[in-house]
Write a structure and sequence with these properties.
heterodimer, A: about 250 residues, mainly alpha, about 80% helix, B: about 50 residues, 1 helix
Chain lengths: ~250, ~50
Amino acid sequence: MLRYANPANFLRLAALLIPAGAVLSGVLLTLGLALAFFVAPADYQQGETVRIMYVHVPAAWLALFCWGVMSAAALGTLVWRHPLADAAQKAAAPLGAAFTFVCLATGSLWGKPMWGTWWVWDARLTSVLVLFIMYLGLIALWRAIEEPVRAGRAAAILTLVGAVNLPIVKFSVDWWNTLHQPASVFRMGGPTIHASMLWPLLVMATALTLLFLTLHLMATRNEILRRRLRRRAILAAEAGEARAHAAQGAAE
Amino acid sequence: MSAHAWFVFAAYAISLLAIGGAALAILIDHRALKAALARLPDDDEETPA
């Protein structure tokens, strides 16, 4: 595992995993969408609207999972000061923001026909909105600090502090009286969803998780290349400065 | 489809735009970084294909 924490080894491994991940997630996504639209039945109360679940629920899981990945990377930054942990953390934030946005937008589109409103300030919806704002804050922090190592440490601290919100999001439906329904898959006593809907949901969740992991590998690879570019630009500037000094010395 | 079909289509369209947009941004960024790196001299670091 640690062998691949070396940036050069990581790039070699990523070159192998990215095409495989892209193909596999594409195949699974096609299968998941086919199951969600043509095999899974309509709900006896919600009708066709229940099909929003097959993208909303995996997006919500990934919004939390991504912050978990960033928290693990933040520990790597603060405890082991590993440059790859910095890169992985920075690469994950926009993806987490995208999945949290999908969760909020699809939830709103599901809520309007079912609850009669686009939005309510209940604990689940509000804590997910806070999660989305934290993702945006983290992206802004990375952009505000130019020096990558300093930015990485500041972002790591913010990420670990923000991890407090994860159990709040997960258990908000149990701790408070919310309009949002309680957990129906990951709960004590097993899932309450019928297998005809559970399997398409699990296939979609697997497909989107694989897609997330593939995109995260690609974005981490970009971060490594960005740091390599920064280093080369600094070296080129220093070499140019040295040449200018030498030319000036020769002229004098 | 039901009267709520547009909500379902809108949900999947927004998901496609958000996730597809993120994927596209990563691909464009990668191309730009590779082009910029090719313009600068190598700093003798091992560069995988």
